[in-house]
Amino acid sequence: MSRLAAAALALGSAAQAGQRLQEGAASHHFDGNFPPPSAQVELALETLTGRCLATADVFSGRRNPVWRLSARSLADLRARISRGNEPDADAQPIPGLGYRGVVIACQHRAGPRRVRVFCGEASWADSGAPIASVPGLDRDLLVASADRTARSLARGQRGRCFGARPG
């Protein structure tokens, strides 16, 4: 077999392996062809249980504010996501620097899972797959946090993501 044929065969095998990985990931919502929003919401509600930590993703080179979500905050988060709207196709992209949302990490029986809420849009933190549109959710998570820096972020972001000053 020529080197060119061997390389083509190897690339074909790699492409097939990548396809199989993508197909396996699709069952866990991690490819570009996302399941319908209702399936994403159900998976998010299943994920957002137990002990969860929230992180305000804002700093580079410094520790981000982290706080534990209380059972009450977690119940509110789940209720708001379950009542959320379809994901917004025109949602703001997450920037490379500055405020990048609140990331909620929960220990799940299938391993850790993370949901990101940025400018009212909930998505899977690792894949970016949309879950639901819940205006004001990240602002409310920041305002209710036990971390002073996180609370101050809600005031600082009001013109970019949050509209009017939080009540």
Any overview of this molecule?
The chain has 167 residues and is of the alpha+beta class. The chain folds into 2 domains: 1-33; 35-162, 2-Layer Sandwich (Dna Ligase, domain 1), CATH 3.30.1490. 41% of the residues lie in helices and 19% in strands. The chain is built from 6 helices and 6 strands; from the N terminus they run ααββαββββααα. The chain has helices at residues 3-26, 37-47, 71-82, 137-143, 148-156, 158-162; strands at residues 52-56, 66-68, 102-108, 111-118, 121-124, 130-133. α4 (137-143) crosses α5 (148-156). The radius of gyration is 19 Å and the shape is globular. The model is unreliable at 1-32 (pLDDT under 50).
What is the topological layout?
Layout: H1 3-26, H2 37-47, E1 52-56, E2 66-68, H3 71-82, E3 102-108, E4 111-118, E5 121-124, E6 130-133, H4 137-143, H5 148-156, H6 158-162
Antiparallel strand pairs: 1-2, 1-3, 3-4, 4-5, 5-6
* Biggest sheet descriptor: 6 strands, antiparallel
Give the helix level as a range of percent.
40-55%
Mean of all residue-level pLDDT scores: 76
The CATH architecture of the largest domain is 2-Layer Sandwich
> Which blocks of ≥5 consecutive residues have pLDDT under 50?
1-32
SS element count, helices: 6
Structural class: alpha+beta
What spatial order of strands do you see in the largest sheet? 2-1-3-4-5-6
In total, the number of strands is 6
The secondary-structure element order is HHEEHEEEEHHH
Query: Could you tell me the strand content as a percent range?
Result: 15-25%
